[in-house]
Amino acid sequence: MRKKRTNGHTQMYVGQKFPLTIKRLGINGEGIGYYKRKIVFVPQALPGEIVTAKVTQVKKNYAQAQVNRIRQASPDRVTPRDNYDVGGIELAHLAYPAQLQFKRDVIKQALAKFKPRAYEEYDIRPTLGMDEPYYYRNKAQFQVRRDANGQVVAGLYRPNSHQLVDLPTFSTQRPLTMKIIRTVCSIIQSLGMSTYNEKTNKGAVKTIVVRESFATGQAQLVLVTNTKELPQREQFVAQVQSRLPEVVSLMHNINPGRTSLVWGEETKHLWGQEYITEKLGQITFRLSARAFFQLNPAQTKVLYDEVKKALELAPNETLIDAYCGVGTIGLYVAQDAKEVRGMDIIPEAIADARVNARLSGLSNVQYEVGGAEKWIPQWNRLGFVPDALVVDPPRTGLDQQLIETIIKYRPRKFVYVSCNPSTLARDLVQLTKVYDVEYIQSVDMFPQTARCEAVVKFSLRG
């Protein structure tokens, strides 16, 4: 008999089955129900459903379970296009209009948890979705291994594991990226190139990275290896040239040893261009192998149009673009402003931003390496006092020093682009000491996933 774990007066054990009514979705898209007052997280379950839950993990304050059987299905349940146990499609079983509602609700959940000033009065606008919420990801980053039969496979890991799931198709990826990955697997197989074995820490090819340009239809291919040299290099390059005419840039990244990081420090040029180009509106971006760029260019334009609308820049106004990366937001709005200055702590990103400004014929932009908390005070001392500030931080949210800098210098116009509602809500606790939230516009950048983005427009109080 399985050993039961007792927490207070709740007894629960791994393998236990019980009926469960799903009350809501959690921030990661999992169903949430309660069994004898203990919260139970159930991936793939939807609000309003009655399921038979099978316990997979028991903790002091919660339990994890899987759907053993759906007793009463939600009217919002749909058949997913993909049936893989991997991340990136955690909402594929939820009808798209309901996904959009969920992403607005996630923002509300985060606000209710952190309770920034006047959060119950915020104007949280309906999520802007896509007409075609599939085949939008312009970049694929798939691990490569050999299966039990010695066949080269490429895909993603099962959640919380290092079990690779082969992905012959994937409905959120651009078809060209999938075609290139399958062809590269075939080339690796035919040439007998070694693939990485995590257990032995031997073998060469670890990861295939493909990025497609929406603007040109061309692609960049990067092989990430455990070894300094690429096996059968000349034959591999020749095969790519003959079988994949869409590939115009072929690179080799070296990432030795067991590591959770995809990229190593050294990237070699194998053939073709060292970059590909992408466009957003009239702005041209040069993308090197490791350059960050939004994974959904079509919806990125929707997001940046919302940023432009929220900023309401006048021709005589100046803007600071913090966390500027390769310059995407600042360059997109630069024609509306007198001057744009941006900064980022990654030198390569700033180098790309300067090139992108030149490619787009923009002379009213300036980019510097370093944090905004350094440059805002320095520019202020030199007489550059921006009318507006836009921030687009990583999922970790704003750096505490930058929050303090914003509160001290208080730019009149302020827009926050968030990719994580939890850290946004946390940051709002401090920012709303001096700013009011005019509205929050939710934007769906990643259909079929639980991730959501938001554009927050502030107004300075007093």
From TrEMBL:
InterPro entries to which the protein is assigned, alphabetical: MeTrfase_TrmA_AS, NA-bd_OB-fold, SAM-dependent_MTases_sf, TRAM_dom, U5_MeTrfase_fam
Please name the PROSITE patterns in this protein's record.
Answer: SAM_MT_RNA_M5U, TRAM, TRMA_1
Q: Which GO terms describe its molecular function?
A: rRNA (uridine-C5-)-methyltransferase activity
Q: Which residues form the TRAM domain?
A: 11-69
- What's the EC number here? 2.1.1.190
Pfam families given for it?
A: TRAM, tRNA_U5-meth_tr
Per UniProt, which keywords does this protein have?
Answer: Methyltransferase, S-adenosyl-L-methionine, Transferase
Which residues act catalytically here?
C419
Question: What PANTHER family does the database record attribute to this sequence?
Answer: PTHR11061:SF45, RNA M5U METHYLTRANSFERASE
- The answer to whether keyword RNA-binding applies is no
Which GO BP terms, alphabetically? rRNA base methylation
What Gene3D superfamilies does its record include? 2.40.50.1070, Nucleic acid-binding proteins, Vaccinia Virus protein VP39
Return the protein name: 23S rRNA (Uracil(1939)-C(5))-methyltransferase RlmD
Can you tell me which family this protein belongs to?
Answer: Belongs to the class I-like SAM-binding methyltransferase superfamily. RNA M5U methyltransferase family.
Q: What is the lineage of its organism?
A: Bacteria, Bacillati, Bacillota, Bacilli, Lactobacillales
Would the keyword DNA damage turn up in this protein's UniProt record?
Answer: no
Where, by residue number, does S-adenosyl-L-methionine bind?
Answer: Q294, Y323, D344, D392
The record's top EC class is transferase
Signal peptide coordinates = none
